[in-house]
Amino acid sequence: MRAEDKAKGQLINELEEMDQRIAELKAIGNEHRRVEEELRKQSHDLGERVMEDNSMERRSEPGNIINQYYSVEFSLKKSIFLYQFKIRNISPEGICVLVREDSDLLNYIKAGDILDLKYYKTDSSQSAELKTEIRHITENDTRRFKGLYLVGLSIL
């Protein structure tokens, strides 16, 4: 039916129906964008959790080591001193020890070194000498660890 043939009331009704349909489509579009944004955020959060889980798997089983051993001793042939440190699980790379920036130990070790280090159990009654790689030596300038280096360890 042509517009000229329709009564004025019919045309007004059709316009109102079209306006209503347009409003419904806008609402559907808005809901679609909201859901899409929510899915994008969830996907991003999931991606971050997967990356975090993967980095935790790459760590040198820190929880297990922390539960077994309390401290580690560096006895280097180049140095006349023994250096003993509490093992910490604060580095994203795995277990580490905190070494003062003025410690002589930093002159004798570098990332990539493989050393025989002595690990002491929590009760200090037993120890084990384990091949260990120095994974990283990172200066930490956060307020809590200012003036200290994180020395990352990986038991081989």
Written account of the structure:
The chain is of the alpha+beta class and 156 residues long. The protein has two domains: 56 residues; 94 residues, Thrombin, subunit H, CATH 2.40.10. It is 37% helix and 34% strand. The protein contains two helices and seven strands, in the order H-H-E-E-E-E-E-E-E. The protein has a seven-stranded antiparallel β-sheet. Strand 3 and strand 4 form a beta hairpin. The chain is rod-shaped.
Summarize the entry for a quick read.
With 156 residues, this protein is an alpha+beta fold. It contains 2 helices and 7 strands; from the N terminus they run H-H-E-E-E-E-E-E-E. The protein is rod-shaped.
Keywords:
7-stranded antiparallel β-sheet, 156 residues, 37% helix, alpha+beta, Thrombin, subunit H
Largest sheet: 7 strands, antiparallel
Approximately how much beta-strand content do the residues carry?
25-35%
**Rg calculated over all Cα atoms:** 32 Å
Q: Assign an overall shape.
A: rod-shaped
Provide the structure class: alpha+beta
**Overall pLDDT, averaged?**
80
Oligomer: single chain
Q: Give the number of DSSP strands.
A: 7
Our count of domains comes out at 2
- What is the CATH superfamily of the largest domain? predicted glycosyltransferase like domains
Query: What is the CATH T-level topology of the largest domain?
Result: Thrombin, subunit H
Biggest sheet strand order reads 2-1-5-6-7-4-3
